[in-house]
Amino acid sequence: MIRLIVFLALIFQGYSELAAKTAPLPENPAGELLVLEGGRYKPLDSFAWESIRSIYGKSHYKDADGDKWEPRDLVMSMAAEPMKWADTAMLRVDYLELKQELGLTEHHKFFSYNELSKAEGLQELVQKAREVSGRPEESTKLTRETEMLYGRLSLLDNLLSGYGFHLVPNGERWVSPMEAPQDIKTGWVDMLVAWRTGDEAAFRSHVAAFEAMQADVENIPASGTIRNELAYNSIQPFHKALQVYLLLILVGILAVVWSKPPVLWLGRLLLAASFLFHTAGLYYITVITGRAPVSNLFESMVFIAWTMIFFTGLFYIFNRKEQYLLIIAGVLGGLSMFYALDSTIDISINPLVPVLRSYWLNIHVTIITASYGAFALAAGLGHVYLFRYRKAPRDTAYLNKVDLLGLRSLQIGVLLLTAGVILGAVWANESWGRYWGWDPKETWSLITLLLYLAVIHGRLNGWATRLTTAVCNVAGFAAVLMTYFGVNYYLSGLHSYATGNPDPVPLKLIVYLLAETAFVVWCFRAGKRRLELA
């Protein structure tokens, strides 16, 4: 708060007689400036995207007048007009108990910086949260939510005061202009004045001065890498893929009930478009980071979704009469992207943790996550089989085709998971000096592999029917979710690189398990009843 007051005093020297309204410039070249944040050089544009998403819960902000702000414009406006934005309700608070503890209006979702920073009891809650930080057994939902809120509040404070813009080279640690020599600090304030007054020429001149300052630094990303990251931010390929997946669900349903050529071609076009957007997003992450896009929760989720669509697309190419594959692609892709882009998941591009800085990341992790995609497709086909069995258990031609595709998905997943487990053991020997240590991730990977191997073994030996296989494909995916999510969230181990802050009993998990159980029982009983009546 003190830093914000000092910054206000400085910036008011530059425009004490100016108008109070800021209008973003037609183009904002400041987005191309580099910022050293989180151990990575990134464009200010990326820093702005990540900051606004963390504070507001969404990547774009719409003000009270209905105007939509691009993140790079918004952070510049925050620095240029801190008083205006300090009174703007944009800090998201969802947890009811936290609102009650702070005396906030319970039915509101967003609150201003001034409102939260002056809330009684905030410092006391923050102190309690710090005392149990790093000790999951003592933390509560309230302490975790308090810690996250205080982090967002501190981030907004840094944007308003100018101390969050680490764009001045200072050895290995870049600093904000407010911590730099006086001439740089003055240049920063003058740049903000030019922004506020709409003086585009002066603003560009000051931006060019900062660019020249950064150009002499070694080891900064190449200009091509920066352009790719700016394109990634501008296109937002994963958001576009999500939109196409949702549309694909509707077209897929229409293609199943009304198989006319225009509908079928539209479905194929949407499937291709969703895959291209999805692939573009992974391509940009790969060229920006120089590694496979599987290092954290967000990247691995979108990669798994991509493998699901890849396998589904292959099946569809060779089985174009099976229009339900369009629905599966839309549902699996849409659900995956919806959860991956959830506001609680960090979607920023971050440097690798030391243990993952190995060529094995591109081999072991990609193979393992690809197996999850194949198992997800098998689960989707299991749902189709059961749904058809419920209505027409004697439609053997249809059911046999779905069963064959489901079995092929299962076999692909088992092959990939087996290879991934073996290669993971080799990597473990290189990293930790042992091939197998019964780490939770290793254990659950083995459990998942053995479960699916049992299904394949049952099919080969004749004691697992097509119906049994479909049920196992649906139910077995719970083991995949435990291996992928559960170990990271609830079990401490050497593989827990993407931990989160879930509730002790996650409601989503309970709903998922109950819904899947009800679906399987409903389809099974209805199908058996029809067979008995026939």
Offer a few descriptive terms.
6 strands, 20 helices, about 525 residues, two-stranded antiparallel sheet, mainly alpha
Describe this structure in words.
The protein is mostly helical. 68% of the residues lie in helices and 3% in strands. The protein contains 20 helices and six strands. The strands form three sheets. A two-stranded antiparallel ribbon has the order 1-2. Strand 3 and strand 4 form a beta hairpin. It is elongated.
Give the topology, please.
Elements (H helix, E strand, L loop, with lengths): L1 H14 L18 E4 L2 E4 H13 L4 E2 L5 E2 L1 H10 L1 H5 L4 E2 L3 H7 L7 E2 L1 H5 L4 H10 L9 H21 L20 H16 L2 H16 L7 H13 L1 H21 L3 H29 L7 H22 L5 H17 L19 H32 L4 H37 L7 H22 L4 H25 L16 H27 L1
Antiparallel strand pairs: 1-2, 3-4, 5-6
